[in-house]
Write a structure and sequence with these properties.
Layout (H helix, E strand, L loop, with lengths): L1 H33 L16 H13 L14 E6 L3 E5 L2 H4 L5 H10 L13 H4 L4 H13 L9 E4 L1 H9 L5 H11 L11 H10 L1 H4 L20 H10 L10 H8 L6 H15 L7
Antiparallel strand pairs: 1-2, 2-3
Helix pairs in contact: 1-7, 2-6, 9-13, 11-12, 11-13
C-alpha cells in the first residue's frame, strides 16, 4: 500500500510538473505573439473641422460602435471584458486618447490595429475598421476630437490562461493580425464599379465584428445569407429594432440594432440588403 501511495504521489507530481511546464510554454508563446511589432507606415489623413462633418462623424462613430459602445456612452472608456480566466480588457478613454495621438497615428490604430510603438492593440475590431475610407475615418476622428475631456480609465490588457491558450492555438489574435486576414479576404468582395460595392463596404465595416470576416457567422451568430429570407421591410425592422422575422427574442442583435444599426439611413439599409441578397445567391463566396 505504501508503495502504491508513493507511486500515486509521484504520478500526481509528474502531472503537476507537466501542467506547470505547459502553462509556461503557453505564456511564453502567447507573449511572443502579443509583443510582436508590426511594420505599418503612418498615412496622412485629412480631418475636417466643419460642423456638418463632425455631426456625420458622430453618426458614423455610433454606427461602428466607437461611441456609445465599447468605449462608453460618451467615449469615456470602460471595462469591456472582466473574466479572470479569460481576460480583463479596459477600452481606453477616447476623449483623452485623441489628445495624445496625431491624426495619422489614430488612423493607424483604428484601421491597422498598430500603436505608435509598433505593437498591436488587443480586443479592438480593427479588421472591421480597416476598409474605412479616408473620408469616413476623417469624419470619425473629427467627431472624437470635438468631444470635451471626460474622466475615464486608460487602456488595460490582462490576459488570463484561456485567452493565452486561444492566442497560441489561433482562436484569438492581436488586432493587427486580424487586419492582415481581412486584407487577404478583401479581394473576395465586390470592387469599385460593382452595383453592390456600397453594400459590401457597409457589411465589412459594420457586420464583420460579430458575423466574421466572411459574414458566415459563428457559434452565436448566423450566416448573413439568412437575409435572403427577409423582405426589405422586414430587414429594415431587424436593423432598426433588433426584431427578426417571426418576432423571436434576440439579445446581441437587439443591442446592436438599438445602439448602432438604427443609425443606418434608408439608403444604406437598401444597399446593405442588396449586397447580402446578392451574396446569398452566390455559393461559396462572400459575394
Amino acid at each position: 500500500m505504501k508503495r502504491l501511495l508513493r507511486w500515486l504521489r509521484l504520478a500526481l507530481l509528474g502531472i503537476l510538473a507537466l501542467v506547470i511546464l505547459a502553462g509556461a510554454v503557453v505564456y511564453v508563446l502567447s507573449e511572443r505573439i502579443v509583443r510582436r511589432r508590426y511594420d505599418e507606415p503612418l498615412v496622412a489623413i485629412a480631418v475636417p473641422t466643419d460642423s456638418l462633418s463632425v455631426s456625420e462623424g458622430q453618426r458614423l462613430a455610433t454606427l461602428r460602435g466607437c461611441s456609445g459602445g465599447c468605449h462608453g456612452s460618451v467615449s469615456e472608456g470602460g471595462v469591456f471584458i472582466d473574466e479572470p480566466l479569460l481576460a480583463r480588457l479596459v477600452a481606453p478613454n477616447l476623449t483623452a486618447s485623441v489628445r495624445t495621438y496625431s491624426d495619422a497615428e489614430l488612423a493607424r490604430i483604428i484601421r491597422r490595429g498598430v500603436r505608435p510603438d509598433g505593437r498591436s492593440v488587443v480586443g479592438m475590431p480593427s479588421e472591421m475598421f480597416s476598409p474605412l475610407t479616408d473620408a469616413d475615418l476623417g469624419r470619425i476622428i473629427a467627431y472624437l476630437r470635438s468631444l470635451p475631456p471626460q474622466p475615464g480609465p486608460g487602456r488595460e490588457v490582462r490576459l488570463g490562461p484561456l485567452a493565452r491558450l486561444g492566442i497560441v492555438t489561433g482562436q484569438y489574435a492581436p488586432a493587427a493580425a486580424w487586419v492582415r486576414r481581412a486584407d487577404r479576404l478583401a479581394r473576395s468582395y465586390p470592387g469599385p464599379g460593382d452595383s453592390t460595392a456600397r453594400g459590401a463596404y457597409l457589411a465589412r465595416t459594420a457586420c464583420t465584428e460579430c458575423h466574421g470576416l466572411d459574414l458566415r457567422g459563428g457559434e452565436t451568430t448566423p450566416d448573413l445569407r439568412i437575409v435572403a429570407s427577409y423582405s426589405l421591410d422586414a430587414f429594415t425592422t431587424l436593423l432598426r429594432t433588433g426584431t427578426p422575422a417571426g418576432n423571436r427574442e434576440l439579445t446581441l442583435m437587439k443591442q446592436a440594432a438599438l445602439k448602432r444599426f438604427s443609425h443606418f439611413t434608408d439608403a444604406e439599409i437598401g444597399a446593405l440588403y442588396a449586397f447580402l441578397r446578392a451574396r446569398a445567391a452566390t455559393p461559396n463566396s462572400v459575394k
